[in-house]
Specification:
With about 220 residues, the chain is an alpha/beta fold. About 35% of the residues lie in helices and about 20% in strands. The chain has helices spanning about 5-10, 40-50, 95-100, 115-120, 120-130, 155-165, 180-195, 205-215; strands spanning about 30-35, 65-75, 75-85, 105-110, 135-145, 170. A six-stranded mixed β-sheet has the order 2-3-1-4-5-6, sandwiched between helices. Strand 2 and strand 3 (about 75-85) form a beta hairpin. The longest helix has 17 residues, at about 180-195. It is globular, with a radius of gyration of 17 Å. The relative contact order is 0.17. The model is unreliable at about 1-20 (pLDDT under 50). Bound molecules: guanosine-5'-triphosphate (GTP). Its cofactor is Mg(2+). This is small monomeric GTPase.
């Protein structure tokens, strides 16, 4: 996906807020950012969620940042997710840092067929801790789980890293759609819970929710 900060700020992305302030078609909003190395599948992940389609073919790296809106219903509440797709390339890092501050949630992707994208997750988490809000929701995603023949990162390695940082983890495929919706629904549920929690309501545990709902690749016998 292509886009520029200026274009995004001007509402050039589909994300311009169109609901009338008198009758909003949603109950709350949340800003979500997709982060991770170039080529891990952030744009495809967003398109799969938004349109149910997979962009195959020539890889066109994102320029800068752009966003899309999607309203999801969780626990009777309509949550408008404003989803920001960032460029993974190093040269755009200073642009994307400026957008971290008011994000409520971050989807941090690596590619299970690309070791350096996994190794760089620690550096991404360092940046997140430097630029994002302290209580930002983070979900770690091992994408391209459909390409089992080229897998170089075991699912257990993703799980171990996620446990170390105390974040939920799942493997996903922007191609087949595996766990794509779940990643956003988990975030929407967490944001809804934070926004309207009653004193005697049991707390929502995003990690438990993800563990109970996530699908595992049918062929994941890589050792
Ligand atoms: N098999 C497979 N290919 C994928 C998947 N997700 C993305 N791809 C492919 O990986 C390449 C990169 O995908 P993008 O979504 O453009 O990657 P990106 O993370 O947005 O990259 P930047 O914009 O540079 O940050 C494309 O050729 C996609 O078709 C997936 O889940 N499975």
């Amino acid at each position: 996906m292509t886009g520029t900060p200026a274009a995004a700020a001007a509402g050039d992305g589909e994300g311009a807020l169109r609901s009338s302030p008198c009758s909003p078609s949603y109950d709350l909003t949340g800003k979500v950012m997709l982060l991770g190395d170039s080529g891990v599948g952030k744009t495809c992940f967003l398109i799969q969620f938004k349109d149910g389609a997979f962009l195959s073919g020539t890889f066109i790296a994102t320029v800068g940042i752009d966003f899309r809106n999607k309203v999801v219903t969780v626990d009777g509440a309509r949550v408008k997710l404003q989803i920001w797709d960032t460029a993974g390339q190093e040269r755009f890092r200073s642009v994307t840092h400026a957008y971290y501050r008011d994000a409520q949630a971050l989807l941090l992707l690596y590619d299970i067929t690309n070791k350096s994208s996994f190794d760089n997750i620690r550096a991404w988490l360092t940046e997140i801790h430097e630029y994002a809000q302290r209580d930002v929701v983070i979900v770690l995603l091992g994408n391209k789980a459909d390409v089992s023949s080229e897998r170089v990162i075991r699912s257990e390695d993703g799980e171990t890293l996620a446990r170390e940082y105390g974040v939920p983890f799942m493997e996903t495929s922007a191609k087949t759609g595996m766990n794509v919706e779940l990643a956003f629904l988990a975030i929407a549920k967490e944001l809804k819970h934070r926004a309207g929690r009653q004193a005697n309501e049991p707390s929502f545990q995003i990690r438990d929710y993800v563990e109970s709902q996530k699908k595992r690749p049918s062929c994941c016998s890589f050792v």
